Amino acid sequence: MSTTTTLPRPPRPSLAPPTSPLPSLPVAKSRVSSVSPSLRTSSGSLLPSPTVASRAVSSSGLPQRPVKGHTNSTSNVPTLTASDSPAGPLPPGKSLRKAVSIGAFPQPPKYGGRSPSHPPSPLSASSTPNGETLDQRLSATPKAGPSRQGSVKRIAPRVSNIGGGRGLLAKSPLTPPSLLNGSGESVSVVNTNHLSLPSPPQSRNSSAQGSYATSATTFEDIGDERAEASGADKNNPQKDGKGNVLVSVRVRPDFGAKDRQQELEWEVSGKRSLIAYKGKEGGDYIYDNVFDTQDNNARVYDAAAKRLVRRVMEGYHGTVFAYGMTGTGKTFSMQGTATNPGVIPLAITDIFSYIRETPHREFLLRVSYLEIYNERIHDLLAGPIANATGPAAPQEEIKLREDSKRGVYATPLKEEIVQSPTQLLRVIARGDNARKVAGTQFNARSSRSHAVVQIVVESRERGASGVANLKDSKRSAISPGGVRVSTLSLIDLAGSEKAADNAERRTEGSHINKSLLTLGTVIARLSSEDKEKDKGGKGKHLPYRDSKLTRLLQPALSGNSLVSILCTIQIGASGSSAASNSHTGETINTLKFASRAKNNIVSHAKKADDSIGAGGDAGSRALLDRYRIEIQELRKQLEEQNKAKETREEEKEKEKDEEEERARELEGKHRHEEQMLEMQLARTALKERIEHLNRLILSSKSLGVNNGRSFSSMSLQRGSVMSNGGDFRPLSARSSASHHTLEVPGHHGSQVIFPSVPLGIEGSEEDDSVGENGDGMASQAAQIQSLQSDLADKNRYISTLEKRLLQARRSSHSRVSMSLHKMTGSSEDGGAVAALAEKDAEILSLRAQLEDKEKMISALTSSKKKNENAHEVGSDGSPNSRRTSRQRSEAGSVAGSSVKLKGSPVTTTPRERIGHHSVKSDREMTDVTRMLDEMISERVDATGGGRRRSSLRPVTEGQR
Ligand SMILES: Nc1ncnc2c1ncn2[C@@H]1O[C@H](COP(=O)(O)OP(=O)(O)OP(=O)(O)O)[C@@H](O)[C@H]1O
């Protein structure tokens, strides 16, 4: 088979040959629409844009030359030979396919791809998916609206000003004319919400129901939805379709072009999607879209990318890339300007419009931006922005990897999650500023790298609580919760260029050209590969790995993605005719590349399945799901932490309570111990006092019962006391013994034991009275005094004890009532109650002792009185005569004191009384002594308990 294929030529539309002479120059760019109102209505796609409307040119005003296709000659049909293509000739027997209508993108074409019965050819008008002729298609679907009517025209004579108007683009911070970075004439994206950016001439509403949409998009969307809703294409292997590659060619305006000869050689028809060249190697080239110099970016986007973007949002992978010679408008088309936003900003607007219009799904967007510069990949979002003052910081080398799930991907690459159009535009503007740009012969700000913006769209059905879209869920037969991941790649390739003078530019250019050549080669071989495969062969080697660009584009080129290629050309060139010729050659090469891409790249793109949870196929990638799971895990962790914290706090609280309780218990115990100690002391003191009293009683007993001499001497003493006319005064106003009882238990006994009671008795007078009388009266008086003072002390002591006991009882009560709430009937409380009871008993005992003592005192007093009486009766001389007047007065005062001496009024003298009653007194004394003994014994028994009784008994018993 010959390597040169003559492409079949379809019959040309029946356009009348030009009848008017060529105009000198179509200076006025405004075209008057010649479309009939009826046609406008039927198309429904009349662009409201004043820009578009104003540029409509009357077909009558345009020269129209016969289209080559109208002749049936094949001489002008472009042929692809080895020399034509950078990648070699078209496969043998392979003819260029007819462009698939945008209507078939991504809707599966209704025909079976490159069916042998419908050999596709870009020059064939009969190979449309619906079998309609190009003429029919052109007349039925006027793509450009009314302005397209009769738009087959001659390109205006060009001028040599390549790069004119270039200042609108922003590729450097120094001159930031870009849409995304603002310029003197533009709105800065950084400071302006994207949503308020100047809208393109047309409304950017991506809704099918929106105020504006291209007719094709609106119609096809509805058709798609109908088809999908009816499930008609569920099992259709062509559901996602083959041949979905969309190829468009855009012609850059040539500002101030001078060489009109070149212009005359070209024909550009947007309406017929035709570019025809009648020069050497001339031919007609038909694509899905041809944009002439008057078409703005919005129109380019609508026709070439809008639908793809929408499909990406629905779950397909999509790739848009701009290809063309340097300076032909790739960056202009992809980025645009503030007043004429390009594909990237318009796609972003549409993405967010779609999200707003799809409330039943939730979305997560992440974006990365890389460039391939001199065959090295740079992350445009990672490092600091390179500027004129210095190079960017070195970056970690980014490599391309491949796995079955993700395909080919660059790593490590920074991905930023974006939540608004403004944010996304800012991220991209940042990347734009970091991109390598330099002035070249053809472009003052030429992109020196291939730039790839990747927007990953993750989406999932909202839960039952969300706005349910039954139709959609039925259609996709997906249970809620699955995450769908798709990627939109927007690529601005570097332009092919001739060798530059500058070494650096030369190096860059060689890398650029090499990668573009590889791209062309891969695309050229794609169809061969298919053919080989069809025959059961292995297929030709596809050199994807020969360049980073082709490696990165591999998934798209091999059919996993919907692809839209925008080729940019500039007709004619400035400068010498050699340059002009070379330019034309490049343009033809671009056109051939576009044709080959259209013919060879076959898309098998499938809608991404929703991965169910993290375990699904795309689960590892589904950030949305990962985030959801992460959030759930974090929530769980938070709850656990909160619980643990609460438990810790509760434990702390409990510990604190327990500590407080322990402290309270300890304090109570201490208090209790103190009280017990005090009581012990008090008990000891009382015991000693009792012992002391016992001794006193015993002494008095021994005086009265056992010792006659003593008794007489005591009687004498008594007599001497009584002779003082009952003048009794306590010999000691204080009882040191009593004090000692309280302070130094056990130390006082010897000091108060009768008869050695010299304490407090005033010196010689006391001695005298004792010595002189020798009857023990003084001793008895002293005993009485001692007892009285003792009594007073005891009273004081008892009142002190009572007070303390009262306090102890109060605190115990409060403690008991407090702890009763928690522990009823605890042993502690029992102990406290018992202690209280014991103390009460002790008080009672002390009171009883007190009473006993009082009785004792009264008994002693009466005994003393009797003694005195006996003394008075027994002697004439008054022993009291020898007492001092002071003693008498003291004795008198004692008589009037609280210790009242009971007894009958004295009617006889003491001596008489002694005489009469000496025997009786003796008996009485004995009786009193016994009585006292008994009383004390009883008391001791009653209060002291067994142990005390045993210690005291022997004393009293022994005395008896
Ligand atoms: N359709 C157009 N309308 C108006 N001006 C355009 C158009 N296309 C390109 N230009 C202008 O042409 C100049 C070069 O365009 P651009 O930088 O986009 O080319 P390029 O293909 O990206 O070049 P390179 O490959 O060197 O980066 C710019 O000044 C741009 O404004």
Automatic annotation (TrEMBL):
Pro residues bias: start-end ranges: 8-24
Disordered as annotated region, ranges: 1-215, 640-673, 807-829, 861-960
InterPro entries referenced in this protein's UniProt entry, alphabetically: Kinesin-like_fam, Kinesin_motor_CS, Kinesin_motor_dom, Kinesin_motor_dom_sf, P-loop_NTPase
GO CC term, one of those recorded: microtubule
Cell compartment(s), UniProt: Cytoplasm, Cytoskeleton
Compositional bias (Low complexity): 30-52
Compositionally biased spans, kind Polar residues: 70-84, 130-139, 178-215
A Pfam family of this chain: Kinesin
GO molecular function: ATP binding; microtubule binding; microtubule motor activity
Superkingdom as given in the UniProt entry: Eukaryota
Domain Kinesin motor: 244-600
Keywords on record: ATP-binding, Cell cycle, Cell division, Coiled coil, Cytoplasm, Cytoskeleton, Microtubule, Mitosis, Motor protein, Nucleotide-binding
List of residues binding ATP: G324, M325, T326, G327, T328, G329, K330, T331
Basic and acidic residues: compositionally biased ranges: 865-874, 910-941
GO terms (BP aspect): cell division; microtubule-based movement
Biological role: Required for assembly of the mitotic spindle.
PANTHER family (alphabetical): CENTROMERE PROTEIN E, CENTROMERE-ASSOCIATED PROTEIN E
Family: Belongs to the TRAFAC class myosin-kinesin ATPase superfamily. Kinesin family.
Protein name in UniProt: Kinesin-like protein
Organism: Aaosphaeria arxii CBS 175.79
Lineage of the organism: Eukaryota, Fungi, Dikarya, Ascomycota, Pezizomycotina
